[in-house]
From TrEMBL:
Keywords: ATP-binding, Nucleotide-binding. One of its GO terms (molecular function) is ATP binding. Residues 291-301 have a biased composition (Pro residues). The keyword Metal-binding does not apply. Residues 254-263 have a biased composition (Polar residues). InterPro entries: ATPase_Atu1862_pred (IPR014588), HerA-like (IPR008571), HerA_central (IPR002789), P-loop_NTPase (IPR027417). This is ATP-binding protein. Residues 253-277, 286-305 are annotated as: Disordered. Residues 15-77 form the Helicase HerA central domain.
């Protein structure tokens, strides 16, 4: 499914759209000197995608904490918690699919690196059931993945660099999509930058950075000087999520703003030299004694923060959406079934994790304006298993099929779908599923794994396999008394369910 994020305008005035699903699979690198508009670009991306995907922002300067007021992000003040607490918070973030901002402001560089590494480690080490898609935005990435040793300890640098490498190199399978921004490509570790497939290059002045930016965009070196002429907020984009050719874009407006502002011209006061001297060197007046100010409130404990994450505050949309009309339960169920059919019609859907498919399901439900609460994760697993088995509404409502689903409920999760696939074929007197179709339902392309699963189920007494005189396979389900028609075990999988 394609969800377009409006990033601004192309030269002809056409909206510059970014494919969010493609971005989640291919990652993004943003480069530009200080003042080129990197933070503005990241803010635009975060605001436009907040409704569609969970977000985790590593913020070294505290620029993105204002997102909490408009979009419900939870701000984690890293200075108030230990590294172990930050790692626990990151694990709870993935479990409850909460969008957060890790504010590293107030920490020295080494402490920032350690805290960011702990946070990324918590996201990366989450349980497989919690591998929901997350947009992980890292501002000033050269601080956390430096290309060379600096003033920090080797231990802190290696820990932070390892966490950033995991994010960009191995995070995709865990649902982590890295979006990193840096002032200079030369300061960013090459093995981290090389994993990005999408690029947004802003204003750059140093020759080495211009040459490297041109090389990443596939441009000739003699055209690299164009990066000196880019205005603030103007970038050159390239990548499967944006454009297959280098495309200049101007980043659009944002709803929130940073707590800091760019320097503005301000003329000095019109005061003569003698008056200024008197003001500067005037003796300090005697100050009356004042009562000591009350101590600042203590920071929230980590348990309070974890409870706030579990509450998952609802996002405040930029524009209120009209309420969906009430829908009869039968129509609602039919719409859910249609969404599930859309998902499994994708040839690659069988090989994606259940967390990624569930996120896709929730997005599609919003697009189809499904009223009420969508299915929770366990209910989605059951419905997806039935849909993968190719069960129609008539079959699902039959008394015979209820026996099959009741028996499948007592099986382990990895073979429930396979059992229902065979049961559906036996009930309909359809040919026995091939090894390729069995492997697809189990989320694999290996026919060897399909054969091993069938052998395991036969050893447990769940089914009996035999071949007819022509060598076609027949599978019987003794507990149900059903038998499939003969089928070619070596046939290719039929994706049309």
């Amino acid at each position: 499914m394609k969800v377009g994020i409006d990033m601004g305008l192309e030269p002809g005035g056409k909206p510059a759209m970014l494919d969010l699903e493609e971005l989640l699979a291919t990652r993004l690198l943003v480069q530009g000197n200080s003042g080129s508009g990197k933070s503005h670009l990241l803010r635009r991306l975060i605001e436009q995608s907040a409704e569609w995907v969970q977000q985790a922002i590593i913020d070294p300067e505290g620029d993105f904490v204002t997102l909490a007021d408009h979009y419900g992000h939870i701000v984690v003040e890293a200075a108030d918690y230990s590294e172990a607490d930050v790692q626990r918070v990151a694990a709870r973030v993935r479990e409850h699919r909460a969008s957060v901002v890790l504010n590293l402001e107030g920490l020295d560089v080494e402490a920032q690196m350690r805290s960011a590494a702990a946070f990324l480690g918590g996201l990366f080490d989450a349980h497989r059931d919690h591998w929901y898609p997350v947009l992980v935005v890292v501002d000033e990435a050269q601080l956390f993945a430096p290309s060379a040793a600096g003033e920090v300890s080797d231990e802190a640098r290696k820990t932070s660099l390892g966490a950033m490498t995991n994010l960009m190199c191995r995070g995709r399978k865990r649902g982590l999509a890295g979006v990193i921004a840096t002032q200079r490509l030369a300061k960013l570790a090459k093995n981290v930058a090389a994993e990005a497939s999408n690029f947004l290059m802003g204003r750059t002045f140093l020759d080495i950075d211009m040459a490297r930016a041109a090389d990443l965009l596939g441009m000739e070196k003699r055209t690299a000087e164009m990066f000196r002429d880019l205005e603030r907020g103007h970038f050159v984009a390239l990548g499967p999520a944006v454009s297959r050719r280098p495309l200049p874009i101007r980043i659009g407006e944002v709803q929130t703003s940073t707590r800091s502002t760019s320097p503005k011209l301000m003329p000095p006061p019109a005061t003569s030299g003698d008056d200024l001297r008197d003001l500067i060197f005037a003796p300090a007046p005697a100050e009356p004694r004042r009562a000591a100010p009350p101590p600042p409130p203590p920071p929230p404990g980590v348990d309070d923060l974890l409870q706030a994450l579990s509450r998952r505050p609802a996002l405040e949309p930029a524009t209120p959406a009209p309420a969906a009309p009430d829908m009869p339960e039968a129509d609602r169920k039919a719409l859910i079934d249609a969404v599930l059919r859309e998902i499994i019609s994708d040839p690659d859907a069988s090989y994606r994790s259940i967390a990624v498919l569930y996120q896709d399901f929730l997005v599609r439900c919003r697009i189809h304006r499904l009223p009420g609460e969508p299915l929770d994760l366990p209910a989605f697993r059951r419905r997806l298993t039935i849909a993968r088995a190719g069960v129609g509404n008539d079959t699902e409502s039959s008394v015979e099929w209820s026996r099959a689903t009741e028996m499948a409920g007592g099986l382990s999760e990895d073979i429930q779908g396979l059992f229902l696939l065979i049961a559906r074929a036996a009930l309909d007197q359809a040919p026995c599923p091939s090894d390729a179709e069995v492997a697809r339902v189990c989320g694999s392309r290996s026919t060897g794994r399909a054969k091993r699963l069938l052998a395991y189920m036969e050893s447990q007494g769940l089914l009996v396999c035999r071949n007819d005189l022509r060598g076609n396979r027949i599978i019987a389900l003794p507990e149900l008394g059903w038998t499939t028609a003969p089928g070619d075990a070596a046939a290719q999988s039929d994706m049309a369910l």
